[in-house]
Write a structure and sequence with these properties.
The structure is a single chain. With about 140 residues, this protein is α+β, with helices and mostly antiparallel strands. Among the domains are: about 40-80, no CATH class; about 85-135. The chain is built from three helices and four strands; from the N terminus they run ααββββα. It has a four-stranded antiparallel sheet. The longest helix has about 35 residues, at about 35-70. The protein is elongated and about 90 Å long.
Length: about 140
């Protein structure tokens, strides 16, 4: 109960400190001058240039970070490709409009697949080490 009251009082103090400067600070402060039309146009263009500069800085930072990650990972960003490629499509032979044969290598195993209308069927599984030894 006491902790909750202390937190509430801290929130009231922080809110009072944040709201006070928005009302002009002290009572004897000078009012802000009214903007003239020339000043308004100049500040509008300055604001546009500030936004463009901020966008260029952010884009530059993104490209710099991507370049650093590319240098660290051998030219590949970690989100696009990993260092180990466990699955490779060795060969693809189209049989018809929507049918094809795929020879896929997964680590030390080669698999012959039949692809038709979005379905894959395993036709044959061959150990890659045994396939290299056979004439």
């Amino acid at each position: 109960m006491i902790r909750k009251q202390a937190i509430n009082r801290c929130i009231y103090i922080v809110c009072a400190l944040l709201v006070r400067p928005s009302f002009g600070g002290f009572i004897g402060s000078q009012p802000l001058p009214l903007p003239t039309p020339k000043t308004d146009q100049v500040t509008q263009w300055l604001g546009l240039w500030e936004v463009c500069f901020a966008l260029l800085v952010i884009a530059g930072m993104i490209f710099a970070i991507r370049w650093v990650f590319g240098r660290m990972n051998g030219g590949k960003t970690p989100l696009i490709a990993s260092k180990q490629r466990n699955i490779q499509i060795i060969e693809r032979k189209p049989l018809g409009g929507r049918q094809s044969l795929l020879l896929v290598r997964c680590r030390d195993t080669e698999v012959l697949l039949h692809q038709s209308k979005g379905r894959l069927t395993t036709l044959c599984v061959v150990d890659a080490e045994n396939a290299k030894e056979a004439p």
